[in-house]
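TASK: fixed-backbone design
INPUT:
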């Protein structure tokens, strides 16, 4: 990600920090403890482009870990792949092609979730759902002026949660 940011010549805010973690093996709170992360202040967690590639148990373990070390009103945004029965017939080929491509690159998509159930499962961990954007909602919000329909990845939802009290 750092290389991509540099390649695109993007500038990041001074308070932005990349924190490496192996979500299958490590607790995110332990990784954050080695960074400048301040548990006493609300934080914004951007977990984009990750959930697809880790196991469902690691996803839920990480969410529970974030809840345990994040201040109230901290926010979390991530994208997640949905199970096949939740995308249209015409999107099956695109999603199948993506799965083959990521597998060839050594990063297979291994987690998919039901968009009608998953947000409730996350909420049960102590998060409040703020938004759960379908690909159609993403296209309408972010790309309504675009002529290309392939900008939004079919079968991938954006979720936005807020850390709530117990």
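OUTPUT:
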């Amino acid at each position: 990600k750092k290389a991509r940011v540099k390649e695109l010549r993007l500038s990041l805010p001074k308070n932005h920090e990349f924190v490496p973690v192996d979500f299958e093996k490590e607790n995110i709170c332990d990784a954050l403890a080695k960074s400048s992360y301040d548990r006493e202040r609300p934080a914004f967690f951007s977990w984009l482009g990750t959930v697809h590639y880790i196991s469902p148990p690691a996803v839920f373990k990480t969410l529970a870990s974030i809840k345990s070390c994040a201040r109230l009103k901290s926010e979390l945004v991530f994208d997640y792949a949905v199970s096949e029965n939740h995308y249209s017939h015409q999107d099956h080929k695109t999603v199948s092609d993506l799965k083959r491509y990521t597998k060839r690159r050594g990063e297979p998509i291994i987690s998919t979730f039901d968009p009608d159930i998953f947000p409730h499962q996350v909420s049960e961990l102590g998060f409040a759902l703020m938004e759960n954007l379908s690909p159609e909602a993403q296209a309408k919000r972010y790309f309504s002026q675009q002529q290309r329909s392939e900008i939004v990845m079919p079968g991938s939802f954006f979720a936005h949660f807020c850390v709530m009290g117990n």
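COMMENT: The helical segments are 2-7, 28-33, 56-69, 91-104, 118-123, 135-142.
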